[in-house]
Design brief:
The complex is a heterodimer of chains A (about 575) and B (about 280). Chain A has one domain: Cytochrome c oxidase-like, subunit I domain (Cytochrome C Oxidase, Chain A). Chain A is built from 16 helices and no strands. Chain B is an alpha+beta fold and about 280 residues long. In chain B, about 40% of the residues lie in helices and about 20% in strands. Chain B has a 5-stranded mixed beta sheet. Chain B is elongated. In chain B, about 35% of the residues are buried. The chains are: A mainly alpha (about 575), B alpha+beta (about 280). Chains A and B meet through α4, α8, α9, α10 and α11 of A and α1, α2, α3, α4 and β7 of B.
Chain lengths: ~575, ~280
């Protein structure tokens, strides 16, 4: 399979060429990681401000409130509130999860796990990061505009997102920055797909790839197909905003032309639903691997898991209409989308069964990556099952746009992805930066994250079922929601607790990277795992593999009773012991 | 407004106490978690399906938890030193997996999809035939208010004697209500929590919604779709009257409309002929 010749290049010497315009997939992965963690903090702070406004309406935001909103004495004003939830969604999805799960792990893991020296297109890889950086900067600049940043929700439905609903440059910059981000993601996706197809080490068939690579591969395929669809929608929206076209304008307030705002919803969700799977597939892959690694047992039904993930990938492209039940599509379309959506439950059930099958009769080591991986199983179980309510059109007519939806999608694409991301960071830390993170702190981090996390999102679903809808600056002007004040307060305290717990991670992360120089480097294989990257030194050298490895067995060979090496696992370069 | 930290904390505590006060008086936690009272003849369909989904979910999630926590306990490295070597691709494993897939298909897809499909097709989007008994209302959403239009004495919409109300909808109990709806500016969503229904009001399109009520009282109508910074203020009132009260209310409103409608006022001119779109 290695029909592409891979040369060993000299290691760059200057700071500029080593850390800034690096062609090295590992450095680019780290750039994405830092970028993502920075935006994760920004988005997290925004989440806390949103929660504060909901639990304590009219109370000044503590500590930084007075500084940020001097004209209201620190109280978050309604226009800022709209901006906050818009930017929270945008930042978390496109600038935190995407760079961490896809940018960082995609870049770092793909070549290492398939036994390659680098990505197939290193320049494209570098450009992908810098496009993302430009996009991030534009988005941050939009926060400083006099009329503020975009405030039409992360979905930015027209006509609210046209000049009819949003004056000022904020929404335009939002559109442009997302377009640039789409360019970056497409570059990354093309690179990942090609790398996986062409640069797999000799002997590594598709069904000998770690499931992490499977997840990233399927994600990239979805990205390459559907990000351009979003790009098209965003271009049309930009035209509507800047050049006065009327693709999405309609109604009495639109003085000219007759477009259709629903067109944008179709375009947006054709991209938007696969996007959910784009975000979760890498986490599913990582979890599938980690469960096997730390249960010291081969991944149960590996092929079935890989095929289930592929089936979900295909189904995910056919179900987007379930976001639009309340727009009253034809009943036939509504029923078709509902049926297709429900079908996702079957492959999901299969890989869930396989995850649990992996744990069955294992010898489970509760390391921090394993705890986070098991956390994903728990929260995704909840998130996936609550999707059933929203998939059924009649129940959705009540639950649509309530906090039930908010709770559900945070479980699936925030909680699961976040925990999966942490699992990955704790796991590959030694290969990335040379040292293991502090296990004790990591375990505290896990428990202090997952308990309030469930308080937050379970609380949200309860409020949603009680009728509280989304994006309200002050929900309590509705009488029927007044009884929900205590639940809102509870959720906010949980959010504050979870926010504070991330301090443990930041401390642990920074300390391991910058302030542990005196401690020895981690061994090649601290987790005792057989995939390719654990046979090379920690941190991985510039060229990854001096000799391109030859793969002879699958990635999850644990606990083979015939092993005589004294280890309980096999490296992928070893012949499978009968 | 320069609060010191102490004052602010006192404020928060005071608020928390007052909340706790009213809370303990009126609601248990369980009551807080319940949706608003169902006043329609269709809401129970949604409640039934919600409950069914909950039972199915509890069953499957219990299985996941038993697997996750049970295996984590029984097969931890401490208790179970040596893992059992299997790739999970033997015939019996495949059969078990296939059985789980099939059980999910039967309990989830076959039931929920079918019931929901039926409810949508036969009830919720099965709009009543035009008749004299039908209460017809046109709804016009705008940033940030709901306009309601009744046909008035001549029975024709968009004429000079229409009854036009702002943020106030009045209907008789027990009658079917048919709504035609559009939006002036951005997308709104007409949400009746007590009826368990909502429909988007979309500029350039006409949405339909029907419902009925079985309980006299005052309820709330919300906008559920983000529609700008004052989205949260876009609230209207739904008043359900007895048939007699409704008749006299309508009569009174029609007289007021005939007496005071300013035919030059463009704000009264947003309607359309019933069913024309």
């Amino acid at each position: 399979m290695a029909f592409v010749e891979q040369h060993i290049h000299d290691e760059p010497k200057t700071f500029w060429s080593k850390y800034i315009v690096s062609y090295d997939h590992k450095v680019i992965g780290k750039q994405f990681l830092w970028f993502g963690i920075f935006f994760l903090l920004v988005g997290g702070l925004m989440a806390l401000m949103i929660r504060w406004a909901l639990a304590f309406p009219g109370e000044p935001f503590p500590i930084i409130g007075g500084l940020m909103f001097p004209h209201t004495g620190g109280v978050i004003p309604p226009d800022t509130y709209a901006m906050l939830f818009t930017m929270h969604g945008t930042i978390m999805i496109f600038y935190a999860i995407t760079p961490i799960l896809i940018g960082a792990f995609g870049n770092f893991c793909i070549p290492l796990l398939i036994g390659a020296r680098d990505m197939i297109f290193p320049t494209l890889n570098m450009l992908s990061f810098w496009f993302q950086m430009a996009s991030g900067i534009i988005l941050l600049v939009s926060l400083c505009l006099p009329l503020g940043a975009a405030a039409g929700g992360w979905t930015s439905y027209p006509t609210l997102s046209t000049t009819l609903g949003q004056q000022g440059l904020g929404q335009t910059l939002w559109t442009i920055s997302l377009f640039l981000l789409g360019v970056s993601s497409t570059m990354g996706a093309v690179n990942y797909i090609t790398t996986i197809i062409t640069l797999r080490a000799p002997g590594m068939g598709y069904f000998k790839m770690p499931l992490t690579v499977w997840g990233l591969w399927l994600t990239s395929i979805l990205n390459a197909i559907f990000i351009p669809v979003l790009g098209a929608g965003l271009l049309l929206l930009t035209c509507d905003r800047i050049f006065g076209t009327t693709f999405f304008l309609a109604g009495a307030a639109a003085t000219s032309g007759k477009g259709d705002p629903i067109l944008f919803q179709h375009v947006f969700w054709i991209f938007g639903h696969p996007e959910v799977y784009i975000l979760i597939l890498p986490a599913w892959g990582i979890v599938s691997d980690l469960l096997s690694f730390f249960a010291r047992k081969p991944a149960f039904g590996y092929k079935m898991t890989a095929l289930s993930l592929s089936a979900i990938t295909i189904l995910s492209t056919l179900v987007y209409g379930h976001h639009m039940y309340t727009t009253q599509m034809s009943p036939l379309l509504t029923q078709s989308f509902m049926t297709l959506t429900m079908l996702i439950s079957i492959p999901s059930a299969i890989f869930f069964a396989n995850w649990l099958g992996t744990l069955w009769k294992g010898s489970i080591r509760f390391t921090s990556p394993m705890l986070f991986a098991m956390g994903v199983v728990f929260v995704f179980g909840l998130g996936g099952l609550t999707g059933l309510y929203l998939a059924s059109a009649s129940v959705d007519l009540y639950l649509h746009d309530t906090y039930f939806v908010v709770g559900h999608f945070h479980y699936t694409m925030a909680a699961s992805v976040l925990l999966g991301g942490f699992a990955g960071i704790y796991f590959w830390m030694p290969k990335m930066f040379g040292r293991l993170m502090n296990e004790c702190l990591a375990k505290w981090h896990f428990w202090l994250t997952i308990i309030p996390l469930n308080g937050i999102f379970m609380g949200m679903m309860i409020m949603g079922y009680a009728g509280m809808h989304r994006r309200l600056y002050n929900p309590f002007i509705y009488e029927f929601m007044n009884k929900l004040i205590p639940i809102n307060t509870f959720v906010t305290w949980c959010a504050i607790a979870m926010g504070l717990a991330q301090g443990l991670f930041i401390y642990n992360f920074i300390k391991t990277i910058f302030f542990s120089k005196k401690q020895p480097l981690a061994s090649n294989n601290p987790w005792e795992v057989g995939t390719l990257e654990w046979q090379i030194p920690s941190p991985a050298p510039h060229y990854n593999y001096k000799e391109i490895p030859v793969v002879k067995c699958g990635p999850h060979e644990f606990g083979n009773p015939n092993l005589t090496t004294g280890r309980d696992f096999q490296y992928q370069t070893e012949e499978l012991v009968d | 407004m320069n609060f010191s930290l102490v004052e602010r904390l006192q404020g928060i505590l005071a608020q928390a106490e007052s909340v706790a006060d009213t809370a303990s008086k009126t609601y248990s936690l369980w009551e807080r978690m319940l949706p608003p009272e169902d006043i329609s003849s269709t809401g129970h369909l949604i409640t039934w399906l919600f409950n069914y989904t909950t039972y199915v979910n509890l069953f499957w999630f219990a299985l996941v938890c038993i697997g996750l926590f049970g295996f984590a306990f029984v097969y931890s490295h401490k208790r179970h030193k040596k893992a059992y070597y299997t790739h999970g691709n033997e015939k019996k494993h495949l059969l078990i997996t296939a059985f789980i897939g099939l059980a999910v298909f039967l309990s989830v897809d076959m039931v929920i999809t079918k019931v929901s499909s039926r409810d949508i097709r036969e009830v919720i989007w099965n709009f009543p035939e035009d008749s004299d008994d039908l209460i017809k209302v046109q709804v016009y959403a705008q940033q940030w208010a709901w306009n309601f239009r009744y046909a008035g004495r001549d029975g024709e919409f968009n004429t000079d004697d229409d009854v036009v109300l702002l943020n106030d909808m009045v209907i008789p109990v027990g009658k079917k209500v048919m709504i035609q709806m559009t939006s002036k500016d951005v997308i709104h969503s007409f949400f009746l929590p007590n009826v368990r229904l909502k429909a988007d009001a979309i500029p350039g399109r006409f949405a339909k919604l029907w419902f009925d009520t079985n309980k006299i009282g005052k309820y709330e109508i919300a906008c559920a779709e983000m529609c700008g910074i004052h989205h949260y203020l876009m609230k209207a009132h739904l008043t359900v009257l007895s048939e007699e009260d409704y008749a006299s209310w309508l009569n009174e409103q029609e007289e007021i409309a005939i007496a005071t409608n300013d035919t030059e006022n463009p704000d009264l001119r947003w309607g359309w002929a019933w069913g024309s779109k």
